[in-house]
């Protein structure tokens, strides 16, 4: 029989001491109190087969079966882990183990250990008791799980049987969030829906209401069609950067999801329209209130006409960098969507003042308008917008070099409720800023980036009258330290963006 004398064992440091904790003076005082003999006595009673210790040290990855010992009843895998970790016996860890954590996987079967449903800790008498988290009722655990994203919920479902049951509670899956470039959207959606729909005989998931894909997660027509067929109660769908989605899947989603209100298909370059699939039933109007078609280069005037005609309840419409949109398509927006509050046609280079004449028909309903980098927009168009849309709160005219002090003066006098204004790279001077500051004292955000005609005097007027200013961009402007100090003096909470190294 192979026997290793306790005197020949190399001294081992207690695992708790390496973690910065105070370890007991000797293991037998706390955990082996019932044994009157030495610390190695329980191991002396175990009769091992010859060469067991040498085989263990020679091949640390070879599993060691404690069931082969004579006169020894093996404990569950997790109990062996707990007892060996707490005891810190050199015989249990091996003679040449460099750290307490190395070699623990050799004490159980080759497969990963299946931990019990409750994490066990030792009481005063060494008896197992559940941890504090496992004593929480199910409703509180569900409350904690509700803050986790979908990927983390899937990880929690692998911990134990109780967590698996709670993690797949349908109420936690009202929102499915998939993020990251390594996420295959089709595979993830199929796996989640298979698990959720298995709890329902109809094969549908009525609890799923929101689906968000972003940061590189991809979805194709196959995955979107599966969502449309299995989740009839969808209200919010965000598919950013899913370049493989086509009109077919979008039509299927719009047809089956009768409660759909929010649709973000940013970067879906193959989508040119949003409509319902034609069928025997008469065409119905969609309940969509939010549509984001940013970077959907295939959308043209005809597609825009179909979209606004089928979505009369639209409140938010974003057409950023839809370069095929012209004034002919813009005129359909106020004709069908009279309740539109926010509209963005930034970087739509074919939109001119005539398109703004049509948008002015929205009147006091319009609160947010972005015509950034629409180089054909001038003072004439903005004056009409200012006079008709007098409740405007946000205007972005960045890059419209034909906009001057005349438009800014009319805007300031007609829209006193203005809160945010971006006139970067416009032909605006100190006179326009003075009119703006006197008429819009509640201005919160102002961008004057690359406004070459703006000086310290204009910035000082804005700072003096708009005491609640929160953000000011004066990058690439002729502003000196005097103007900077004026903003700091009158606008205590203002964040100033600048490129002057002397301001630091």
Task: Summarize the entry for a quick read.
The protein is α/β, with parallel strands linked by helices and 504 residues long. It has helices spanning 15-18, 27-30, 41-44, 52-58, 77-87, 90-93, 138-145, 150-156, 161-167, 185-197, 221-230, 247-256, 301-310, 327-330, 332-336, 353-359, 379-388, 405-414, 430-439, 456-465, 481-490, and strands at residues 120-122, 128-130, 175-179, 210-214, 236-239, 262-264, 290-292, 316-318, 342-344, 368-370, 394-396, 420-422, 445-447, 471-473, 495-497.
Task: Please explain how this structure is put together.
The protein has helices at 15-18, 27-30, 41-44, 52-58, 77-87, 90-93, 138-145, 150-156, 161-167, 185-197, 221-230, 247-256, 301-310, 327-330, 332-336, 353-359, 379-388, 405-414, 430-439, 456-465, 481-490; strands at 120-122, 128-130, 175-179, 210-214, 236-239, 262-264, 290-292, 316-318, 342-344, 368-370, 394-396, 420-422, 445-447, 471-473, 495-497. The chain is 33% helix and 10% strand. Helix 19 links the parallel strand 12 and strand 13. The longest helix has 13 residues, at 185-197. The strands form 2 sheets. A 13-stranded parallel sheet has the order 3-4-5-6-7-8-9-10-11-12-13-14-15, with no helix packed on it. A two-stranded antiparallel ribbon has the order 1-2.
Please identify the structural class as seen in this structure.
Answer: alpha/beta
Helicity, as a percent range: 25-40%
**What is the tally of beta strands?**
15
Radius of gyration: 34 Å
Q: What percent strand?
A: 5-15%
Which regions contain 5 or more consecutive residues with pLDDT less than 50? 1-123
Oligomeric state as shown: single chain
Please summarize the sheet with the most strands. Answer: 13 strands, parallel
- The DSSP helix count reads 21
């Amino acid at each position: 029989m192979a026997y290793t004398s306790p005197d020949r064992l190399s001294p081992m440091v207690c695992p708790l001491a390496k973690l910065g904790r105070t370890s007991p003076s000797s293991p037998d005082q706390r955990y082996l109190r019932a044994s009157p003999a030495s610390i190695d006595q329980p191991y002396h009673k175990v009769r091992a087969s010859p060469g067991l210790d040498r085989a263990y040290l020679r091949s640390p990855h070879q599993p060691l079966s404690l069931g082969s010992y004579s006169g020894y009843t093996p404990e569950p895998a997790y109990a062996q882990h707990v007892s060996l970790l707490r005891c810190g016996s050199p015989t249990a860890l091996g003679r040449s183990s460099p750290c307490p954590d190395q070699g623990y996987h050799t004490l159980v079967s080759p497969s990963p250990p299946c931990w019990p449903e409750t994490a066990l800790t030792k009481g005063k008498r060494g008896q197992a008791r559940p941890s504090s988290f496992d004593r929480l009722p199910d409703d509180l655990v569900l409350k904690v799980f509700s803050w986790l994203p979908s990927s983390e919920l899937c990880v929690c479902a692998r911990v134990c049987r109780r967590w698996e049951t709670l993690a797949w509670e349908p109420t936690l899956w009202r929102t499915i969030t998939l993020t990251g470039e390594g996420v295959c959207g089709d595979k993830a959606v199929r796996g989640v829906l298979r698990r959720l729909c298995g709890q329902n005989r109809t094969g549908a998931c009525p609890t799923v209401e929101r689906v968000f894909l972003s940061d590189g997660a991809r979805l194709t027509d196959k995955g979107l069609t599966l969502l449309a067929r299995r989740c009839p109660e969808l209200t919010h769908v965000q598919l950013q950067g899913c370049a493989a989605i086509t009109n077919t899947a979008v039509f299927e989603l719009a047809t089956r999801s009768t409660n759909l209100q929010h649709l973000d298909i940013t970067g879906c370059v193959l989508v040119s329209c949003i409509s319902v699939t034609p069928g025997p039933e008469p065409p119905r109007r969609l309940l969509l209130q939010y549509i984001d078609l940013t970077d959907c280069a295939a959308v043209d005037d005809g597609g825009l006409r179909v979209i606004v005609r089928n979505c009369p309840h639209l409140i938010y419409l974003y057409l950023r960098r839809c370069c095929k949109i012209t004034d002919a398509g813009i005129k359909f927006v106020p004709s069908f969507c009279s309740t539109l509050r926010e509209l963005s046609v930034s970087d739509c280079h074919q939109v001119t003042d005539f398109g703004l004449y049509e948008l002015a028909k929205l009147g006091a309903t319009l609160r947010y308008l972005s015509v950034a980098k629409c180089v054909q927009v001038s003072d004439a168009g903005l004056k009409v917008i200012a006079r008709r849309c007098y409740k405007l709160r946000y205007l972005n005219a960045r890059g419209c070099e034909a906009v001057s002090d005349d438009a800014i003066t009319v805007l300031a006098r007609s829209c006193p409720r203005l809160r945010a204004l971006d006139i970067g790279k416009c032909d605006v001077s100190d006179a326009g800023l003075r009119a703006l500051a006197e008429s819009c004292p509640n201005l919160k955000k102002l961008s004057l980036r690359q406004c070459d005609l703006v000086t310290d005097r204009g910035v000082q007027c804005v700072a003096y009258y708009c005491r609640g200013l929160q953000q000011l961009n004066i990058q690439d402007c002729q502003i000196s330290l005097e103007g900077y100090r004026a903003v700091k003096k009158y606008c205590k909470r203002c964040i100033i963006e600048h490129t002057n190294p002397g301001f630091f």
